[in-house]
Amino acid sequence: MRHDALGAHARDELGFSEITTARPLQAAFASALTFAIGATLPLAVVAFYSGPSLAAAVAVAALVALAVLGALAARTGGAKLLPGFVRVTFWSALAMAVTYSVGAFFGALAS
């Protein structure tokens, strides 16, 4: 502590270490990779679905993917699956509904 009081405090009191230091590039690559992986199911629906209401099919596929990822994230973090599943699904559905409503308000809906 005599040579680096701030470093000693960060290490001993707060638990900061080289292992827990932020790595922005690693976070950016992980975010980009998970975004790309998460987009595969809705993109597959666009590529292979030929039935009516493509927008609804993509929305349902996206919600299913997000629900699974929410449950997986909860499990990975050691939390209960159901609250993670519900939280991600609810907020995702709400975000989709708001986005749809804004598009409808401005007349930008896909046919």
Tell me, rounded to a whole number, the average pLDDT.
84
Described by strand count, sense and barrel closure, the largest sheet is: none
Measured by DSSP, the beta-strand proportion falls in under 5%
Instruction: Please tally the helical runs, counting DSSP H or I stretches of 4 or more residues.
Output: 5
Radius of gyration: 21 Å
Low-confidence stretches: none
Oligomer state of the chains in this structure: single chain
Task: Tell the overall outline.
Answer: elongated
H and E string: HHHHH
Q: Name the structural class.
A: mainly alpha
First-residue to last-residue Cα separation: 67 Å
Number of domains: 2
Number of E strands:
0
Fraction of residues in helices?
A: over 70%
Features:
single chain; 111 residues; mainly alpha; 2 domains; elongated
Structural account:
The chain has 111 residues and is mainly alpha-helical. It has two domains: 1-38, no CATH class; 40-111, no CATH class. It is built from five helices and no strands. It has helices at 5-12, 24-38, 40-48, 54-76, 81-105. Helix 3 runs antiparallel to helix 4 (54-76) and helix 4 packs antiparallel against helix 5. The protein is elongated. The termini are far apart.
